[in-house]
């Protein structure tokens, strides 16, 4: 079953496969990882199959291997994402994403009176560990909870 | 503390807070010192606050410093669309220290990142106002002789009042007991209560003044503002409950002092003013000494 699904997006010889992206977050992932400016061969499929999180998307980037730091940036939009590092058509490494403790320039502060919503500057949050994802703004010190989370 | 900004009260440790408080007492004894001779201090008030600005101006003048800046944004380049970053970059090339008040929350933290010289946050929206907290601590120390083991009552708007939140955090270094008196709508937010729990600090919540006031060492009053209520009827119901009258002070301790960040509207009846326990006007004066201590510490002049 898995093999059949994979074939919908052609295999790569070397590179990285990012799987289990929620279909509606595909373009966020592309923009966070700056794939829109990447010169490598990229294939992607979306609205594939469905699992308990709904339709998923998959991205394959040939001849590119990401830093863990970069990969973790997508954890906010695609917490279930998996990374497969491919060498000679084989998966040599599998990785899950993990929310970084400091999140720079991805999320928007929900506080309309926060300086980050007026000045041209990067937002910066620290992760507050609780049941749900919550981000504490480095600037206004207010906490943006998951229900108010907007990805820039 | 030398060359370190004061953006949030949490930036200073217990020891540093105590240093400032002790130094403020020394400046009160001897308020005219030429420590800031040949120094230029910028006071940038992107929103007007006459009270805070006069207090800083007095502190700087008493220390013999010179002041550049503006007292509201309409006379600054912000109205021409200049970013905060550009203003700070420019001014930090002119001055040795920047005192900044700004309506947006987090602006002082950002200014600190862009500035070549230290920043003193004189209020960033509803977020932080650490020099107010330090003058409150100085007032408490001065009137009680200590900051340790005090019973602190906070009254009024405990939900939005930034002064009570910062004071609560700073006092938590000193093993206090807190009593919170507020309408239901304006209760102390859960995040602060969880935080107190995590530090093992005792607190009680009340919705009106009771005879428990007899235990208070400090009564910190704040204003209950009508605009905080979604339902105007709710405001009408509570507006007279949180007004302190002189008769309510009958059975209170001799060392009790009443503080208020000012300006007051009607939450402290004027008949309290003559009571020796009323301390809010001296508290404002203490602000000058506390700010002298903060400036001198940050510039490394003491
Ligand atoms: Zn913010």
TrEMBL record, chain A:
Domain of life: Bacteria
Domain Aspartate carbamoyltransferase regulatory subunit C-terminal, first and last residues per copy: 102-147
Molecular function (Gene Ontology), one example: metal ion binding
GO cellular component, one term: aspartate carbamoyltransferase complex
Ranges of residues in domain Aspartate carbamoyltransferase regulatory subunit N-terminal: 7-98
Record Gene3D superfamilies: Aspartate carbamoyltransferase regulatory subunit, C-terminal domain (2.30.30.20), Aspartate carbamoyltransferase regulatory subunit, N-terminal domain (3.30.70.140)
InterPro entries assigned to the protein according to its UniProt record, in alphabetical order: Asp_carbamoyltransf_reg_N, Asp_carbamoylTrfase_reg, Asp_carbamoyltrfase_reg_C, Asp_carbatrfase_reg_C_sf, Asp_carbatrfase_reg_N_sf
Biological process, per Gene Ontology: 'de novo' pyrimidine nucleobase biosynthetic process; pyrimidine nucleotide biosynthetic process
Database matches in SUPFAM superfamilies: Aspartate carbamoyltransferase, Regulatory-chain, C-terminal domain, Aspartate carbamoyltransferase, Regulatory-chain, N-terminal domain
Binding-site residues, Zn(2+): 109, 114, 137, 140
Keywords: Metal-binding, Pyrimidine biosynthesis, Transferase, Zinc
Subunit structure: Contains catalytic and regulatory chains.
Protein family per UniProt: Belongs to the PyrI family.
Protein name: Aspartate carbamoyltransferase regulatory chain
Organism field: Plebeiibacterium sediminum
Lineage start: Bacteria, Pseudomonadati, Bacteroidota, Bacteroidia, Marinilabiliales
Protein's gene: pyrI
UniProtKB/TrEMBL annotation, chain B:
Binding-site positions, carbamoyl phosphate: 51-52, 101, 129, 132, 262-263
Gene Ontology biological process: 'de novo' pyrimidine nucleobase biosynthetic process; 'de novo' UMP biosynthetic process; amino acid metabolic process
EC number: 2.1.3.2
Pathway, per record: Pyrimidine metabolism; UMP biosynthesis via de novo pathway; (S)-dihydroorotate from bicarbonate: step 2/3
Molecular function terms, GO-annotated: amino acid binding; aspartate carbamoyltransferase activity
Gene Ontology CC terms: cytosol
Stretches assigned to the Aspartate/ornithine carbamoyltransferase carbamoyl-P binding domain: 4-141
Record InterPro entries: Asp/Orn_carbamoyltranf_P-bd, Asp/Orn_carbamoylTrfase, Asp/Orn_carbamoylTrfase_sf, Asp_carbamoyltransf, Asp_carbamoyltransf_Asp/Orn-bd
Ligand binding (L-aspartate): 80, 162, 223
Coiled-coil region list: none
UniProt keyword terms in alphabetical order: Pyrimidine biosynthesis, Transferase
Domain (Aspartate/ornithine carbamoyltransferase Asp/Orn-binding): residue spans on this chain: 149-297
Catalyzed chemical reaction(s): carbamoyl phosphate + L-aspartate = N-carbamoyl-L-aspartate + phosphate + H(+)
Pfam families recorded: OTCace, OTCace_N
PANTHER family xref list: ASPARTATE CARBAMOYLTRANSFERASE (PTHR45753:SF6), ORNITHINE CARBAMOYLTRANSFERASE, MITOCHONDRIAL (PTHR45753)
Subunit structure, interactors included: Heterododecamer (2C3:3R2) of six catalytic PyrB chains organized as two trimers (C3), and six regulatory PyrI chains organized as three dimers (R2).
Function, in words: Catalyzes the condensation of carbamoyl phosphate and aspartate to form carbamoyl aspartate and inorganic phosphate, the committed step in the de novo pyrimidine nucleotide biosynthesis pathway.
Family of the protein in this entry: Belongs to the aspartate/ornithine carbamoyltransferase superfamily. ATCase family.
Record-given protein name: Aspartate carbamoyltransferase
């Amino acid at each position: 079953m898995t093999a059949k699904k994979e074939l919908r997006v052609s295999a790569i010889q070397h590179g990285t496969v990012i799987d289990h992206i929620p279909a509606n977050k595909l373009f966020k992932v592309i923009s966070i990882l700056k794939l829109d400016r990447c010169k490598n061969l990229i294939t992607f499929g979306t609205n594939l199959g469905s699992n308990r999180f709904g339709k998923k998307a998959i991205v394959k980037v040939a001849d590119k291997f990401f830093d863990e730091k970069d990969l973790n940036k997508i954890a906010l939009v695609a917490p279930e994402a998996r990374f497969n590092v491919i060498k000679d058509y084989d998966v040599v490494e599998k990785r899950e994403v993990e929310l970084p403790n400091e999140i720079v320039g991805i999320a928007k502060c929900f506080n309309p009176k926060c300086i980050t919503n007026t000045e041209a500057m990067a937002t910066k949050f620290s992760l507050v560990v609780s049941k749900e994802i919550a981000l504490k703004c480095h600037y206004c010190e207010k906490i943006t909870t998951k229900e108010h989370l907007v990805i820039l | 503390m030398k060359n370190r900004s004061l953006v949030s009260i949490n930036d200073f440790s217990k020891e540093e807070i105590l240093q400032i408080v002790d130094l403020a007492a020394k400046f009160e004894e001897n308020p005219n010192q030429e420590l800031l001779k040949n120094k230029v201090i910028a006071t940038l008030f992107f929103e007007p606050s006459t009270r805070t600005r006069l207090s800083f101006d007095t502190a700087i003048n008493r220390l013999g410093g010179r002041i550049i800046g503006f007292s509201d944004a309409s006379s600054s380049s912000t109205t021409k669309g200049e970013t905060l970053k550009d203003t700070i970059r420019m001014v930090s090339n002119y001055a040795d220290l920047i005192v900044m008040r700004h309506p947006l929350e987090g602006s002082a933290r950002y200014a600190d990142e862009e500035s070549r010289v230290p920043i003193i946050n004189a209020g960033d929206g509803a977020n932080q106002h650490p020099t107010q907290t330090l003058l409150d601590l100085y007032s408490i120390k001065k009137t009680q002789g200590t900051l340790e083991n005090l019973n602190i009552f906070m009254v009024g708007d405990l939900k939005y009042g930034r002064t009570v939140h910062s004071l609560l955090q700073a006092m938590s270094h000193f093993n206090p007991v807190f009593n919170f008196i507020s309408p239901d709508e304006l209760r102390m937010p859960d995040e602060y209560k969880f935080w107190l729990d995590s530090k093992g600090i005792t607190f009680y919540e009340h919705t009106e003044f009771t005879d428990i006031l007899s235990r208070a060492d400090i009564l910190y009053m704040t204003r209950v503002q009508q605009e905080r209520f979604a339902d105007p009827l709710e405001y009408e119901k509570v507006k007279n409950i949180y007004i302190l009258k002189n008769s309510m002070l009958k059975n209170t301790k001799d060392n009790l002092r009443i503080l208020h960040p000012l300006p007051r509207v009607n939450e402290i009846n004027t008949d309290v003013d003559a009571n020796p326990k009323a301390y809010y006007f001296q508290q404002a004066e203490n602000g000058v000494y506390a700010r002298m201590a903060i400036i001198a510490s940050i510039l490394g002049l003491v």
